[in-house]
């Protein structure tokens, strides 16, 4: 069988499209200039990344889109070589807001379509321009939306050719089942993008997703950027883990490469975020070594169900996803 190089480091989704198993994440804290996202995205494409993950709420899609178009213009890639993901923010979950939200991302990107459009969070918030709508006391204002109706609106975006594939993010198995059991379901989610790393290996959710032919996509796979808005300061530093470092040393690698390779070997698509050129290069170099079954078992043993990103500001929402075990 001739090897299909285009898809050699890709996974086939349940709708027939292919997603590269290693993606480049573009989220950055507010103090990082948006221009950095453009520079880093260009570096990532030059290094070999073909899967670019962004979101409306990151507020950098103009810059990321420009970087992709520049790399198409200079002949490095064609549009069809790039797998681009954007996300539907929680203030746009009402069905009538879904397509306009995607169209706004497309205008920012100046692209005709995205490859993947996913629900960013299941916790609907009050619609409007404010990404974090707060009341006078500083509490988030939630919205009540039937996620099955949101999903139907995503299906229509796929039918309209605005996105090739549709999926979800931060869903637990019960929320996934609600979509999967929806009467008249036209398309299953192709993926569920969740926090996943050796301290939170999501083995139960991974099993569940595999049983439904849904790809698990890992964010915060290297631990997390230590952004005080999202995580507690005293959180453990994954890449300083003794066992990860010992395995890395044995393979002549760094602990980040081991953490990324671990996900790929267990059938998880993994996102790596860095705006540092050396690190971007290193993060891509995970296809020329293999972890042994003993290595994999040792890394599995690091799981402590520790979440860096708890999204506690949505804990009172009926769809808050992390009260369930998986």
UniProtKB/TrEMBL annotation:
Any Pfam family matching the protein: Aldo_ket_red
Report keywords, A-Z.
Answer: NADP, Oxidoreductase
Signal peptide position in this chain? none
Q: Where is the active site?
A: 58
According to the lineage, what is the superkingdom? Answer: Eukaryota
Task: Please report the stretch or stretches of sequence annotated as the NADP-dependent oxidoreductase domain.
Answer: 22-303
Establish whether keyword Phosphoprotein is in the entry. no
Residues of the site described as Lowers pKa of active site Tyr? 87
Residues engaged in binding substrate = 120
The entry lists its GO molecular-function terms as: oxidoreductase activity
- Record's InterPro entries? AKR, AKR1C, Aldo/ket_reductase_CS, NAD(P)_OxRdtase_dom_sf, NADP_OxRdtase_dom
> Could you say which protein family the record assigns here?
Belongs to the aldo/keto reductase family.
Q: What is this protein called?
A: Aldo-keto reductase family 1 member C15-like isoform X15
Q: Which organism is it from?
A: Phyllostomus discolor
Organism lineage: Eukaryota, Metazoa, Chordata, Craniata, Vertebrata
């Amino acid at each position: 069988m001739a090897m299909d190089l285009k898809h050699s480091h890709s996974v086939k989704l349940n709708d027939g499209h292919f997603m590269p198993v290693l993606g480049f994440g573009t989220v950055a804290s507010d103090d990082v200039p948006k221009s950095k996202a453009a520079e880093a995205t260009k570096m990532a494409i030059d290094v070999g990344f073909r899967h670019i993950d962004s979101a409306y709420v990151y507020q950098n899609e103009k810059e990321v889109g420009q970087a992709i178009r520049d790399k198409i213009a200079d002949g490095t890639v064609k549009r069809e070589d790039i797998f681009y993901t954007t996300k539907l923010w929680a203030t746009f979950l009402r069905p009538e807001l879904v397509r306009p939200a995607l169209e706004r991302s497309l205008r920012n990107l100046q692209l005709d379509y995205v490859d993947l459009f996913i629900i960013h969070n299941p916790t609907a918030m009050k619609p409007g321009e404010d990404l974090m709508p707060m009341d006078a006391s500083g509490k988030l204002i939630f919205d009540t939306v039937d996620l099955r109706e949101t999903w139907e609106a995503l299906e229509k975006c796929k039918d309209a050719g605005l996105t090739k594939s549709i999926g979800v993010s931060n869903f637990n198995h019960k929320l996934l089942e609600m979509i999967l059991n929806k009467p008249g379901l036209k398309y299953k989610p192709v993926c569920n993008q969740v926090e996943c790393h050796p301290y939170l290996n999501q083995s139960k959710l991974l099993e569940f997703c595999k049983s439904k032919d849904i790809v698990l996509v890992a964010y915060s796979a290297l631990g997390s950027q230590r952004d005080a808005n999202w995580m507690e300061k005293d959180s453990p530093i994954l890449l300083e883990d003794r066992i990860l470092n010992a395995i890395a040393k044995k393979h002549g690698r760094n602990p980040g490469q081991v953490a990324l390779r671990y996900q790929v070997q267990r059938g998880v698509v993994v996102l790596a975020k860095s705006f540092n050129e050396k690190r971007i290069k290193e993060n891509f170099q995970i296809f020329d070594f293999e972890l042994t079954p003993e290595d994999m078992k040792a890394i599995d043993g690091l799981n402590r169900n520790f979440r860096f990103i708890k999204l506690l500001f949505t804990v009172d929402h009926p769809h808050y996803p992390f009260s369930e075990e998986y």
